[in-house]
Design a protein that fits this description.
With 466 residues, the protein is of the alpha+beta class. The chain folds into 2 domains: 5-186, GAF domain (Beta-Lactamase, 2-Layer Sandwich); 296-466, 2-Layer Sandwich (Heat Shock Protein 90). It is built from 11 helices and 11 strands. The strands form 2 sheets. It has a 6-stranded mixed beta sheet with strand order 9-10-8-7-6-11. The protein is rod-shaped.
Length: 466
Amino acid sequence: MGHGPDLDALTGLRSGKPSYYPEYRVSAERLRRVILALDRISAALVRTMEGSEALVRAVVEAAADHLSADWVVFALLDGALPDSRPRHLVLGPDGVEWTGLDLVPAAVRHHVRQICAGRAVEDGSDHDPETTRRHRHIPIRLDGRTVGGFVAWTPPDREIDETDNSVLRILAGQTAAALQNCALLDRSERLYARTARQADDLKQRNAELERTQQELGAARQREVLDDERHRIARELHDSVTQYALSAGMHIELCRSEIDDPRLRAQLDTAKDLTRRAVEQLRSAIYALNDDGCADKDLPAMLRRLSTVHMPDELRVEVRIGGKPVALPADTEQSLFRIAGEALFNTAVHADAGRAVVRLAYRCRQVRLTISDDGRGSPEEVRRSLRAADLAGPSGEHRGLVNMQARAREMGGSLTFRRARLGGLQVQVEIPVPGCDDTRDPRPQGRPESTEACPQGRAESTEGTRP
């Protein structure tokens, strides 16, 4: 049974006759060399995952080791396998890599340039027999086209035979496929990295889009609520308030034409109730039209509150103590609403002529107090609040219940006590993250800033009176 030409070239076995024993020993040595060479080639080709540079060095070292070569050249044609690096590699005696072509022998340099230019002569057919015996050029082919080549020079005592040619051809063919795999692997890794970056970017954009949609939805809800609030405010102003004012005018007209003291007293009461109803409507309209003061800080919001839609007979002062700190927007809104509700109660129920709003910033705490000189009683307010808690959301004293709920939502407390002005003091204290020092940061003797109506004057620090 005959063997194929490649097997014949690698092993040299052409007969099974006993007289062939001497040749068999030579063939066995060739086979051993082939097995070692193929093992080196396999070890070199597994470097594919490390990239083309590691692969090229490994296969060149495998060729040099198999041939015991003085010089081994690897080179790629210009433009072929553009992703592969290095484009050429020269290994000299003792396995030393020569990086500069100007330092290698002229013949070696000539072969490198010929291969890169695509003008190399294959298999050394242009050399004399002695040179051909120790010199080989093996082309590297991929898909039927030449993409580069190996060139080797062996010492005088090392002839390159057909077995070596077969090993070099196997090495060249596997190197071409491995370089192509390196390029495909490198491209796939770059594509994967780019895809991962695009996925991360898409994830971030999607998160930004969701946040934007949520913000747009919230803005739309606020817009709808604001439109409805403003509509209600216009209706109150154009209808209910006008009716109340008209009722007051008619009461005053009837009062001027009646001489009976008892009836005049009753008309005075009706007139006073009508006036208070108008004031309450004005405060409600102000609250409905208020835009939340989104562009102002809490001190500015309180100053605005003290000068807008307050009864003419009520003088309001605003005092700011300590160094203002930034508070969350919802916290400032809650404090602002509590102050507005307290001043509304003062204007409508307390029969007060003066009120002081004090905002004190301290380490880890903000305190808001609203004091007046009216006839409000802390005990009565506490009883009303307890009754409202027991009665549930019936609408009675809902302002007090809302104030307490807002204070609790901020993690603070709401208390009612007697003010030094003589009336009621509403106090809210909320915790604020800050320094560990619990002392008042204001230097001793430093006055608080005071904002008031033109005829107002600064009062002494608010406190508790039994």
